[in-house]
Please model this.
Amino acid sequence: MKILVCIKQVPDSAQIRVHPVTNTIMRQGVPTIINPYDLFALEEALRLRDKFGGEVTVLTMGPPMAADSLRKALAIGADRAVLLTDRSFAGSDTLATTYALAQAIRKIQEVFGAPDVVFAGKQTIDGDTAQVGPGVAKRLDLLQLTYVSKIDSCDPQKGEIIVERRAEGGVQVLRTRLPCLITMLEGTNEIRRGAIDDSLRAARAEIVTWSAKDAGIADLSKCGLKGSPTIVKKVFAPTPRSERATLIEPAKTAAESADGLVGAIFAKKASLESDMAKLASGS
Amino acid sequence: MIDEKFDAIVIGAGMAGNAAAYTMASRGLKVLQLERGEYPGSKNVQGGILYADMLEKIIPNFREEAPLERHLVEQRFWMMTDRSHTALQYRSDDFNEEKPNRYTIVRSQFDRWFSRETQAQGAIVISETTVTELVRDAYGKVIGVQTDRRGGTIFADVVVIAEGVNGLLGTRAGLRETPKAEHVALAVKEMHFLPRETIEARFNLHGDEGVVIEAAGTISRGMTGMGFVYTNKESISVGMGCLVSDFAGATETPYGLLERFKSHPSIKPLLEGSEVKEYAAHLIPEGGFKAIPELFGDGWVVAGDAAQLNNAIHREGSNLAMTSGRLAAEAIFQIKSRREPMTKQNLALYKKTLDESFVVKDLKKYKDMPALLHTQAKNYFLAYPTLLSNAMESYLRVDGTPKLEKEKATLRSFVKERSWTGLFGDAVRLARAWR
Amino acid sequence: MSDATAAPAQSRANQKKELPEHFRDYKHVWVFIEQERGEVHPVSFELLGAGRKLADKLGVELAGVVLGAPGEGTRAAVKEAFHHGADLAYLVEDHVLADYRNEPYSKALTQLVDAHKPEILLLGATTLGRDLAGSVATTLLTGLTADCTELAVDTDGSLAATRPTFGGSLLCTIYTLNYRPQMATVRPRQMPMPERDATREGRIVPFKADLDEELIVTKILKYIPDRESSKTNLAFADVIVAGGLGLQSAENFQLVRNLATTLGAEFGGSRPLVQKGWIGSDRQIGQTGKTIRPKLYIAAGISGAIQHRVGVEGADMIVAINTDKNAPIFDFAHLGIVTDAIRLLPALTDAFRGRLSPHARDRLAS
Ligand SMILES: Cc1cc2nc3c(=O)[nH]c(=O)nc-3n(C[C@H](O)[C@H](O)[C@H](O)COP(=O)(O)OP(=O)(O)OC[C@H]3O[C@@H](n4cnc5c(N)ncnc54)[C@H](O)[C@@H]3O)c2cc1C
Ligand SMILES: Cc1cc2nc3c(=O)[nH]c(=O)nc-3n(C[C@H](O)[C@H](O)[C@H](O)COP(=O)(O)OP(=O)(O)OC[C@H]3O[C@@H](n4cnc5c(N)ncnc54)[C@H](O)[C@@H]3O)c2cc1C
Ligand SMILES: Nc1ncnc2c1ncn2[C@@H]1O[C@H](COP(=O)(O)O)[C@@H](O)[C@H]1O
Model:
């Protein structure tokens, strides 16, 4: 099986700071990581490969530094890495991103063979849109399975796959044909630790690096800022909630504190008491 | 198992490890470097001041690319009581030179850069991998390492141990003893972020100029330790460290001390309005010359903090680490060039060059200092700062008391606290240890 | 928005509206009415409330878009759309649309947009809404602002969609100036629920989409509703008790479970607990875990890191128990108590049990 995984390098949001005056992101020194959601996709891809043979290619669009994330994916166990990097991609919104990624996947198809499954993460922690997956699927005319919690079965020979997909009030069990695009739900598997030889291989691996031209992207007007219909007009810090929490003074005993807290909760919102009484009585 | 064999394996991607790996790789050796952190620098802590000279000897043009924060133009030493500080301050425009001598750095960034450079020289660096054991042959010669990853053992002609102060691996392998509690300090440190304009205004800085404050006194509650404030571009590093042995008997916690240091009236305004993002705790080897363990053996050498090469009196560590790493690498390269084996006898070359360098010479100079400060902590960190502060206050306060009376009272306070012989002894001891 | 937010290009931020001729007849505000198994997702009503305001401001009509199988449920959804503020409803009835699948839904919605040309198209940021919106926007080659928390109409009539970025540390306002429709998805429980008016009616515009079950590749083999599975359902729970590292041990976490059991609530925790194996990953709350919107959220020994915060901010009431009065959780909790959770939790369980038991309530009533 040929499997492709789209991963994105993102700033570790735990360490992001906002300049208090200019309201810009202070990226200096903020370490980058593989978008955590993408690791669930990568692990699922590796499992399919381990089961059916074949190879896993990871693809990212980003600055040259994004090669670090690709190398990391190789060290985890991916077989090949493609970095799509070009100044003309700067400022891409999701539509422009999906255009570039889809073109690159077409090129990958040409050079390394057509993927049976394309994986993406559910969403990124910086863009946080969950659109790039569906967008890429649409552009490549791939069947789309988002929020997949489990791959029940896959038959590369028959070109068929059955997955469980999270819907709002339950789980859909869907059967579709390969090739398809899957976005994996978080918490569905645990990313493996590569072996030491994976790391050695990753450290030495040649990362396939393509510019827009290399990837066969002719129409640069569809890329980057130019190709992005959305425009960020304003970036600002959220107004901090004016009041901090009302603090209940702890009493002498835990029991008294607890009574005080429960009283304060219901004093703040009276309707909660009857709602919770119903819930507590199991009705 | 990995079939291929490396010329050298370096354990750790801190200052010593990077210096060693860079030096060997740039001379064409086949180097594998293993780092336990998520990436080089992710776990490393330093105040931190980078001493340019020692890095220049490894990467001459480092200033062009390295993530340097500010070059230092001013040093403040503060003797503190709970409400005051008495300062010795030095600032000179001479430090605004073309190639400044000292910079503040943020280790997580700096180490990442250093590692990138090392990789550019051809070294292979693998992160998130902990070396769990040294592998020896039947004769006890170290021939490789075992890691915590699948696929186990990797072989090399020589292993450079640069695992930092904890040195679990080295102690486990029986190469040295666990550092004694009175030979290591525990430091806690926070990064306080502020807009660079604010930092520059608060510290009277222009452009990339920087300041260091080092503070000692009652803030350490009678323990051997000190506090520090370092200016970075958009953050201030604030920390506090004390000997581990002192914490053992004390009710004070490192974090408690730091909290108090931060709320000291002289420190608090410097940090006002900042956003705290990083909190780190790390050990510093402070045993000095007498604590240096065996530095080399059959198939191995040890460098940096792992070898206790740290000058606590001058707060120098990274430069000793870099220098020892480089010297180890140069020794290995020489032996390799002569096509000789990495025996203990041959690797003695490392110790020889290290002994001739400032590293061992400086540590030798202060060989009695650690013990002195440890045994006399109450005097140096509680009594004297308080006496000094009282003296300063009395000197400056104009309240109608005749000056002569004031001076007498001050002198009496010193004698009462420490007695004449005590004062004399403290001075002699200090001078002797400093010599 | 992936990179645009990272580097808002100054020049583009000042870009003027120059709507191409062929987009000028795109009019009206549409809200996609999401229904699953005959039940309308409440976010659709919230969107009708927000859409109403936009439509009034623009002086245009508000339409609900209802896709589904012919029958009662679909018709009821149309009625509810009117009751919640829609002037008209586009109704696409087809057996192929019985249950949500991306292929037929995105086809039908795209065809409908091409035929009736809305100026603004809003969907809920649910698993369905996000799945659909991404496909439709890409097919239509227009902009889509995901996960908005605020919608407004600018002076020149453009949709100003505000959304969090970088894990909630910043907000940005995004425009789709020169493309139509302007699409946005909005998180559930972000907008207030509008008043339902059962007397309100509207007109139905039926639309025949070109769909053929034969040509739809993806088949639904089964649907397992959550209430029939033992799966945790944090996302929809009304009361959630959660613990963090402050509980100090897996044993102490039992105190959180006990309280949850007493309350008939769900329990969850911060990410480190999942990493330590104290709780399963399906119980992680926060950015890389579940986003929750309960009526009451009790957080015991959780510091309130930004990644946790973004997952719980939608709760009506957040109650924090933490020993550190400076813990960031007190910045966004509504009620707090600075005390040891390990000691407080058992007492709290007793206190709630006393207060909520039928016995106590009878006494209260009399
Ligand atoms: C608070 C503080 C302030 C300081 N300020 C200064 C200052 O201003 N100037 C100065 O020069 N020095 C300062 N120092 C000292 C300086 O940081 C150290 O001397 C220096 O970092 C030592 O370098 P090293 O390479 O020996 O160890 P480290 O930098 O600690 O590197 C050791 C590396 O080995 C890795 N490692 C450990 N075990 C293993 C294993 N088993 N397998 C794989 N990898 C492993 C670690 O993750 C780490 O990356 C300060 C130290 C502290 C704590
Ligand atoms: C990419 C990324 C994604 C992440 N996603 C998530 C996510 O989805 N969800 C999530 O939760 N985290 C997430 N995190 C982790 C997050 O940054 C924090 O590390 C985490 O939320 C902290 O968990 P905590 O509050 O339990 O622990 P801590 O931060 O250690 O806080 C423990 C708290 O307990 C208090 N405490 C201690 N003892 C007691 C006591 N006896 N009684 C009461 N209080 C006590 C302490 O004062 C402290 O405030 C993510 C991080 C990253 C980098
Ligand atoms: N620049 C990119 N390069 C590769 N994959 C990406 C990129 N941006 C987004 N993706 C993929 O699309 C998913 C959803 O991203 P988003 O729509 O930004 O939330 C991510 O989890 C990735 O798998």
Chains B and C do not touch (no CB pair under 8 Å).
